[in-house]
Known about the structure:
- The structure is a single chain.
- The protein is mainly alpha-helical.
- The protein has one domain (2-31, 39-83): 434 Repressor (Amino-terminal Domain) (Orthogonal Bundle), CATH 1.10.260.
- The protein has helices at 2-30, 41-47, 51-58, 66-76.
- 12% of the residues are buried.
- Residues 87-94 have low confidence and may be disordered.
Amino acid sequence: MILNKCFYSIYLQYQNIIIMSTIAIAIQRLEKPNFPFKPTANFYESVGMSKKRFWAIYKGKTQPRLDEMQCIAKYFGFEAKDLVLPSKNSTPTV
């Protein structure tokens, strides 16, 4: 029983790292050298979330909802599906 809880905790931490990485990587790909992304009040208003909520999602401390992922993707001009890792059964697109 305790072992199952331990594995589940590790699994959740792994999932948070994956989500954080996909959002962080997607944003970092758009950054210009020496000009890192610095969210403004306009950004937070456009994506409809607070500063605290955005950074919790970015750092992987909390899972984003689908609508939040769609708003972030729309703001940066890519699709929400780009923020989700493909399943094991899906075939990669080139």
